[in-house]
Here is the input.
Amino acid sequence: MQATTKLLLCETMSNPLLRVVDLRAMATECHRHGLKLVVDNTFATPVLTKPLTYGADLVLHSVTKYLAGHSDVTAGAVVARAAEDAARLRQIGIVFGLTLSPMESWLSVRGMKTMRLRVAAHSHNAQQVAEFLEVHPAVEAVYYPGLLTHPQHGLATMQGHGLFSGMLSFRLPDDAAVVNRFMQRSERFPFAPSLAGVDSSCSHPLYTSHRALTDEQRAELGITVGLVRLSVGIEPVEELLADLAHALS
Ligand SMILES: *Cc1c(COP(=O)(O)O)cnc(C)c1O
Here is the structure.
C-alpha cells in the first residue's frame, strides 16, 4: 500500500492455484486504511460466496464463465455496495459503450437460471476428480480447496458453504513431454484458455493465463511447466475419471 493506493483487488479463490482469500479480514484491513476492496468472484460465483456480505465494496464476475455457463457468451458484471459507486459505474458503462447486446444479455440471464444447479454439479464432480488425482501415482500435487489437505480447507468451507467450485489444478513432473502426452490423450478435457462451461476443459497456465509474467514471477508463484488447470464440467463423473486414468496411464 502506498499513499496513492485507492483500492485492493483480490480473487475469492486464486487462479490457478486455488488459494483462498479471507475476505472479511481483507475488507477490515482495507477499510482501516480507507481503501475499497474489489473482489473478483468469478471462480466462486454467488452460489458459493457473496463477497458484499464479507465487506467487499465492489464485486467482479466474468459472466463468460459460470454465470452464463455454456461457453457461448463473452460478458462481465460489476456489482457495487454503495449507490454512488453503482451510479458512477452505470454512467461509465454508458459513456464507454460497455453495455451488452440483447442476445448476450438474454443468454446470460438464461444461463443464470440454472447457475445454482450447475455450480453444485461442477463442485461435486471436481471433488471426485481432486480425490482421484490426489492418490494417482503420476500426480505430484493437487490444488483444490475441497480437499482436507488444502491449507485453507476450513476457510473455504466457511466461505463456500461446503461447495468448492469446478476449478482445480494439479502438478505433473516438470517435463513438457509429460504434459503434452496428458493433453493429447485426454478426450474429455480439451485444451481451452477459458473455463467454467458445462463441458470440461483443461488449460496450461504457463502458456496461457500467466504467459506475460517473467520467469522469476512464475517461479515465485509456482507456475511451472508441470502445472495443469482443469475446469471440471457436469458430465457423468465416471466418464471423466476414466478419461483421466487413460490420459495419465
Ligand atoms: C476469465 C476471467 C476473467 C476475464 O473474463 P472474460 O469474460 O474472459 O473477459 C477475469 N477474472 C477471472 C478470475 C477469470 O477467470
Summary: The chain has a mean pLDDT of 96. Strands lie at 7-11, 36-40, 58-62, 76-80, 141-143, 167-171, 201-203, 227-231. Residues 108 and 200 are 19 Å apart (CA to CA). The longest helix spans residues 115-134.
